[in-house]
Amino acid sequence: MTKDLRELSRALLEKFLDPNGKPISGKFSPPSDIQKERDSLTQLLAGDKWVSPSNVRVFDFLHDGLYCLALTIPLSNEDLLELKDQSEDTIQPIEIPGSIYLFLASQLDLHPKKYDLQWAEQYIAGPANEDGVDLEFVQPYIEEITILQLTDASIFKNPTPGRYVANYICTFDPRLKGNNKLSPRSLEIIREIFLQEKDRLIEENLFKAMETPLLKHAFLEIYRTLEFVFTLPRANALLEQLKLAGGKIDMKILDFARHCHKQLGWNRVERDSIKKLFREYSSVNYASFFSLPPKCTPFAGLTAALLTASADDQNAYVEKVADKFYQLRNQVAHQFWPDEVLNCTDSDWQELIEFTLGCVSYFYDQHLSKVA
């Protein structure tokens, strides 16, 4: 992990090739205050580097005493403003000296964008072999990075691992937003789930849902995050019964559920598990079930019990929703005959994804908080 400016400069220039296919050699033109550049790099405290579930390379470090993240994502000014707003100004972009940029380019293994070899010979190799090529000229032709600083008053609980914060930032990656068809509300809920700081959050499925251009596949990935909490209602009910019987058990519900699975051989029954989850979720947000038939075509044949109806009538309706929900899950996960497939438009899938994310957010908030 060198901090020698000559070595860092040479390593970056050699990423470009001349018309003969050989790495370009030479130097960058010196900055106006070379000693200040060296001091800034010397004082930087390097951290770790890793790859996020969305395939973004990340490096963390301390700069001017504050925690920083460098990520290989091209956030626009609009993206940065949105991130600053949603993080309540606790995550902000920063300007860095050229020496630190060269160090980050090495740590993140930045590569040039597509370029013409003759152009590189004229505008990079030529100046680099004379007085030196300007780093500011070369930077736009290198893979883009975003450098962010977290203030002491972070929106995340202290301490929160940098990897978790980086994954939240990756939800703003424009390459994800460019591919997916998720509604703005769905993306908002996904970020809310990150901000709730959940224990054992399954980021991979959330990012897969954001990456795929097929909404039915996005729904299946969101459904897989819901699968993680299938055993919790049963475990919670058993734990409460044991406490009422005089048992003294000081254990997180998730850990208790895992012990039940390991020691008792509990196996979830998906359809029944969905019904148990939906009954609990409907007790605090029945309106989301009530609004499904007019918004989501596959549920149009169901007659929703009124908001003022009895608990039994509402539960009966919620179980019908669970049956239809499970049928939709199966037609995506398994090969169905065409005449068995429920017609579902992009708009329908979007509504179903928002509904499922709301359910996921509720259960993660109830059972998987890191401070629970």
- Strands, total number: 5
Number of domains: 2
Helix content: 40-55%
Sketch the major β-sheet: 5 strands, antiparallel
The overall pLDDT average reads 88
Q: In terms of per-residue confidence, which ranges show pLDDT below 50 for 5 or more consecutive residues?
A: none
Q: What structural class do the secondary elements suggest?
A: alpha+beta
Percent strand equals 5-15%
Terminal residue distance: 39 Å
Shape: elongated
How many H/I helices? 17
Give, in spatial order, the strands making up the sheet with the most strands: 1-2-3-5-4
Strand/helix succession = HHEEEHEHHHEHHHHHHHHHHH
The Cα radius of gyration reads 26 Å
List the helices and strands and how they pair.
Elements: H1 5-13, H2 34-43, E1 45-51, E2 57-63, E3 66-71, H3 77-86, E4 91-93, H4 98-107, H5 117-128, H6 135-138, E5 146-150, H7 162-170, H8 174-179, H9 184-195, H10 203-211, H11 215-227, H12 232-244, H13 253-264, H14 270-290, H15 292-295, H16 311-333, H17 346-367
Antiparallel strand pairs: 1-2, 2-3, 3-5, 4-5
